[in-house]
Amino acid sequence: MTLILTNDDGIDAPGIQALQQAVNGTGIIVAPTGQFSGCGHQVTTHQPLKLNRRSATEYAVDGMPADCTRIALKHLVTDAEWVLSGINAGGNLGVDVYISGTVAAVREATMLGVRGIAVSHWIKRPLVIDWDWASYWTAKVLQDLFTRPLPMNCFWNVNLPHLEPSSPDPKIVFCEPSTQPLPVNYRVEGDLFYYYGEYSKRPRKEGTDVDVCFSGNIAVTQIAL
Length: 225
Description:
Radius of gyration: 17 Å
Strand content: 25-35%
Strand order of the largest sheet: 3-4-2-1-5-6-7-11-8
Helix content: 10-25%
Largest sheet: 9 strands, mixed
Number of helices: 5
Oligomer: single chain
Order of helices and strands: EHEEEHEHEHEEEEHE
């Protein structure tokens, strides 16, 4: 199976190394040189994109996550069967999919006719992500999703919970994405608006991906274009 790995946290982020570990080192990494969290589905069309080949299986692109998918599928790995994006440091639940560069990378793959899976890890402060556990859980989810039928023009969005070290393994729960908005709060100082919405305080309608993930399980949603 030919796999492309990308993200929006940058090629040197620990999450993409955890993702590579989850697929036993078989992925071809094509990821941004820098951090583009929250960039959405931006693409670069009015300036050149610089490609730095770090090794036979690792490429850094001076562009957005969706740019990485485009270059990977059109020029580097034209026979790819899957594009995997992540593991993002932070959740991409519900309406986050419209903001997320992590998700945009697999949405772009889906638009180009290649199957995709986005993987993110919710951060429950003050806990710190254990990337070995994240990799282990991701491997279990991928083993399941690789064998499931995926309709045309759809992709998978996976969100890992943030658990205490002594917690039992989370369950994989297939659910619907939340459509409730993120907290939109600003502190105003003169003509400056400082965002201070708290992710953990977002609405969590029962049974949606937000509720499943916040309850300590792995939320898997099928997203259509």
